[in-house]
Specification:
heterodimer, A: alpha/beta, Rossmann fold, nine-stranded mixed beta sheet, 6 helices, 25% strand, globular, B: Butyryl-CoA Dehydrogenase, subunit A, domain 2, Butyryl-CoA Dehydrogenase, subunit A, domain 3, 3 domains, four-stranded mixed beta sheet, four-stranded antiparallel beta sheet, binds flavin-adenine dinucleotide, ETF_a/b_N (chain A)
Chain lengths: 259, 381
Amino acid sequence: MNIVVCVKQVPDTATERKLRSDDKTLDREAADGVVNELDEYAVEEALKLKEAHGGEVTVLTMGPGKATETIRKVLAMGADKAVHLSDDALHGSDALSTSYAMAQALKKIGFDLVVLGSESTDARTGVLAAMLAERLGVPQLTLANKVEVNGSAIAVQRLTDYGYDKVEASLPAVVSVVEKINEPRYPSFKGIMAAKKKPVETLGVADAEISADQVGLANAWSEVVDFAVAPPRAAGTVVKDEGDGGAKIAEFLASKKFV
Amino acid sequence: MLNDEHIELRKSVEEFAREVVAPVIGDYYERCEFPYEIVRKMGAMGLFGLPVPEEYGGMGGDYFALCLTLEELARVDSSVAITLEAAVSLGAMPLLRYGTAEQKARWLPKLTSGEMLGAFGLTEPGGGTDVPGGMRTTAVLDGGEWVINGSKAFITNSGTDITGFVAVAAITGREGGRPEISTIIVPSGTPGFTVSKKYSKVGWSASDTRELSFTDCRVPEENLLGERGRGYAQFLRTLDEGRVAIAALSVGLAQGCVDESLRYARERTAFGRAIGGFQAMQFKIADMEARAHTARLAYYHAAERMLAGLPFKKEAAIAKLVASNAAMDNARDATQVFGGYGFMNEFPVGRFYRDAKILEVGEGTSEVQRMLIARELGMDA
Ligand SMILES: Cc1cc2nc3c(=O)[nH]c(=O)nc-3n(C[C@H](O)[C@H](O)[C@H](O)COP(=O)(O)OP(=O)(O)OC[C@H]3O[C@@H](n4cnc5c(N)ncnc54)[C@H](O)[C@@H]3O)c2cc1C
């Protein structure tokens, strides 16, 4: 099975994250880049599927040159090879144009199954899996907390508010997974050393047949008009129980329109 | 001396320690419980096979990779770090270095995967520094079997559910009045080999330390590890390496004290400002950072010489001496930065304080390190 797992480099959620004042895009230089945590579950699932069914796992990353660190980590976890979609023309792409660029790259790579995390911890749109499936004309099975492949049939448990839906489709398909699905492995030293020898192909927009006038900040469908730093958290209200604590809490909740 | 792979390994272990060890280790520690689940995950990550060649299921890395791993683990917790240190440095390495092909094939794959732990029994209730002079445990050949009698004290990893064997140093004869020391592998569960219940310890509470006794304990002659009569020389090499590893672990604890103090000094306020704004606190933390840094350089240097095949006895002794000192000093200072909370078990610095002391004792006391350094300087006893 030819599995492609899409992985994004994001600023470490443990560090302070900023937008750039000039073009209002994320300041990727300001913070340490790490593998989007939710993508690690996608990588683990892809590796498990490969271990069970054979085949190959290819990492696809769209991002600046610095994203090679992320690629190396995923290769160290056990992926076989990587494609790095990297071009200045892609800077500032929104979800729609990103999905277009990634779909073009996926068409070029070829796949039986594309696996993604449920969202990225920086942009948090959570729409890429659906958009990719639509652009590629294949079934989408999103928010999976269990994936089963049987020949060319794929079945997932799709996490919902009330439990889960059972969704079935046939390959090729796009799957996004939630964090309950597995426990991502940590790269071993052997994996880290092996990763050095694994092939990484870099694609520019022309290589992936991406029209430069459909990607990048200038061609984005959505625009960040303004932004502000989140205000520091205000001091909370302390309710001292002097026999009427319950009533006071109810009053507070009512004043905030929670009850 | 760090290459790209070392840097990535360190990052990977740092994440593991933060995500897997830190959230749960306090509870294990409080309950004095061995963290089997963490050990299993460390095994899955290949940590127990770091310096072992791939043909034995190892990672094909070097001893320095192990040291970096110990440092990162000990930044978060020392019980977990010493479990790994003893398992690899005292359990697997002597087998790798001195074992026969059969012994390696039998034990190493299970040791490197972390499914099984090996222990090394040198210290006896009557003395740990005075070896081999003070050693009492004996092994006598009888009908193709070693018959072992005696006892061992403070043996790490010797009584867990996954302990496979203890390599026991014993007197196997006399040569011109001097005891002849050999090392013999005693599998767990061998009749006559008794593992006592865990000690109640000041620190390293989530690690396994036991007293062992041997009463007419019989194992096959081929369980001899290395050459007969070479046991003393073998463990000297093992201990020299082990000192570099303990130095790395000590640096981790010292750095963990800096990490925790920095965080706390930013958050805690007194007199209307963060305590990190007071010069007294800043100087304390600056001293802590300086100690951790210099101790790290000392162990890097010792490891570098070891890997280059150069003599490293003095450098290993210096690294262990200064790093264990740094760990003790930093633990004392970090608990001071935390004020009363430093005395509470719920904060890691309290654990660091309890864990630091043993670093000045295990694998050669600080006095022993000074004796070694003096001897290397040509000063006779
Ligand atoms: C938690 C823990 C885990 C351990 N794990 C292991 C293990 O896995 N395997 C193992 O074999 N051992 C292990 N040990 C034992 C450890 O290595 C010894 O405790 C240590 O070597 C000191 O020996 P001792 O306790 O007998 O002290 P002693 O040798 O009795 O020393 C007492 C004091 O006298 C000093 N002293 C002794 N001789 C001299 C001298 N000639 N000159 C100056 N000062 C001297 C010492 O420095 C020390 O301060 C462990 C110990 C602990 C506490």
